[in-house]
Design a protein that fits this description.
Shape: globular
Distance between the termini: 23 Å
Organism: Alloalcanivorax xenomutans
InterPro entries: RlaP
Number of strands: 7
Pfam families: RlaP
Number of helices: 11
Protein name: Nucleotidyltransferase domain-containing protein
Structural class: alpha+beta
Largest sheet: 5 strands, mixed
Number of domains: 2
CATH architecture of the largest domain: 2-Layer Sandwich
Strand content: 5-15%
CATH topology of the largest domain: Beta Polymerase, domain 2
Amino acid sequence: MRRIRDAEQEHGVRVLYAVESGSRAWGFASPNSDYDVRFIYVHPHDWYLSVDLEDKRDVIEYEIVDDIDINGWDLRKALKLFWKSNPSFVEWMQSPIVYVDDRTFSEGVRSLMPGIYSVAKGVHHYHSMAKTNYKGYLKAQLVPLKKYFYVLRPLLAIRWLETHGEPAPIEFERLRETLTDAPGVNDEISKLLERKKRSQEKEFVPVIPTLNRFIEKELSRLASYQEDPAERTEDLTALSRFFRSFLK
């Protein structure tokens, strides 16, 4: 909290929402994992009434200090990315660890979410993330332990999207609810999860055939996924009105 309040003072902004993202929010942090703090902030009204608005910096970033990685997005930037179903923004709104919460902001975003969020874009993002991490890290005999979760989490998020048609929770335990048809996979995940929570960030493990087969099957299935372009029911007018409500 102190670091967030310091950022407000330094930059003359008001933080509307701040959360934990990354492995601590996902539920599989290692003992030496960083704290990944992300926040949304708003400037005073007149900051946005500027000819050079597009040239102004719309992020606040800091070096990692005391294992705390903290950075934030300006409200206008955040809402523009929300309109595009940006996965980072949507996941921040799903975080179970909240440090600052202006309810007018968080509840407003969640009320707009059903009319703005694109399940198809979510599937595309998570599929790309899983495929990239699998091909890049899990094809050897010894693989980075944490990369299994960087592949499994997005694949299970896709299952959630397909089943529920709404943004997937970021807690890994909740995503595992989608594995009712794969008890063997779930058993292997349980073992790996316990090891992850005790291990250092860069630990390697022998490849796990059961998990690799499941991953390859899911990636193959998703290769033919077709997007539905007609999902959005909300328009930019509502989002702009929401944005203006925070300008003081």
